[in-house]
Amino acid sequence: MEEDKQWVLEMTAKLHSYDPVQEPMAWKNRSIYMVPSNLIEPSKRHAYSPQMVSFGPYHHGRPHLIPMEDHKQRTLLHVLHRTSIPLQAIIDSVKQVEPQLRNQYDDQASLPDSAGAFLKMMVVDGFFMLEILRTAEKVPSDYTANDPIFSWHGMLYVLPYVKRDMLMLENQIPLLVLDRLVAAETRKPKSEDGYVHKLVADFFSLNIEATKAPGSGLGLHVLDVYRKGRIEGPVRLHRSVDGKKQSVVVRSVTELYEAGVRFTKSKTNSLKDIEFRHGVLSLPWIMLDDTSESSLLNLLAFERLHVGAGIEVSAYVSFMDEIIDTDKDVALLQKKGIILNALGSDKAVAKLFNELSRDVTIDPNSKLGEVYRALGAYSLQKTNVWRANLIHTYFRSPWAFLSLLAAIVLLGLTIAQTVYSALSYYVSLNQNNSSPPPPSLSAPPPSRF
Length: 449
Hints:
Blueprint: H1 2-17, H2 22-29, H3 67-83, H4 87-95, H5 98-103, H6 115-134, H7 152-157, H8 159-165, H9 175-186, H10 195-203, H11 222-232, H12 253-258, E1 262-265, E2 275-277, E3 280-283, E4 286-288, H13 292-305, H14 312-323, H15 327-335, E5 339-341, H16 346-356, H17 367-379, H18 382-394, H19 398-434
Parallel strand pairs: 1-3, 4-5
Antiparallel strand pairs: 2-3
Helix pairs in contact: 3-6, 4-6, 4-9, 14-16, 15-16
Transmembrane segments: 399-423
Pfam families: DUF247
Keywords: Membrane, Transmembrane, Transmembrane helix
């Protein structure tokens, strides 16, 4: 009975504060959602959950994401030291829009109850996201060369994970947070018009004009800006650090072979010994057996975690995954002596490289990055494709070559006969036109004498 009375009192209080006019506005402001379970296949849950870093309240505090919290705090210290801005001034700037920020989250039960905890989350997560976005232009100079996040190593191994996590619906913070933080940094009433959009567009290589919604300045969150950029305008080509365009996607071994690329075994079995010259791709030979997966995984883990270890194994695995799609690709490389297969089947080798290379990348400024670009450009040249088709069709066997040769000879004889007949006709016609006219058959005129 007491529970009934308590419930009546709670509902009565809510009824007094209920405003039907404000309700539509509350739903309109919602933009960050938890994906309903009925939309998620059990095996696809990872596609909606961050793997490296949490932004906002929905996944905050998950055990596997806690290690990144220290880096977030460290990033905030860098920003405060670099800009000399009082932390309280930053909090006050964000606090001015706290109701708008809270209303963007659909699952209100996930939000911290206290204003202090909520504002702390927005400031810490917001500055970390800003620093990540700024790496598209230049890594701030106050980070050391061996920094696990803001260094070349971090950009290769950490940034792909963070970039993926930034595009998850459940892992968003309002773009208004970034706008207020930039305003606090610059000590201006509001940030430079379009600056936050430009950061997002540059980071994801989007057309800046396409990311702006008609009649509105600021987007909802990163995913919203990314969506506009992908559906409204062309995506720019990514550029490497030195400004060179990165390569197009490299085709598989079978497709490269059909495009005229030849494969040969490198002089050594060093995983760095990969070259592409004059249409020939040289690859190191490698023995693959039941222990290969474990050894490669541990090598990848070491390169991933130890700053300064290098990325040679990671780059090799990523490159092999790019050119190996099916068992046919493995079979061709095995025929060339590049792969020594002790796993039992070509499909097993293809699966090995395809699964090992998840979230592994190639340094675009490395030697292998140059090979990658050159290989992609070569395979797109129509002359190479045409020459390869000719060779593969007519020069695979002596009989095919003899058939082609016979066809060429027959065609040549046919052309010669046609030319000879045409010449004979014109010679005969010219002879008839140049001969003297025949004598007249009419009677001569009468003589005067």
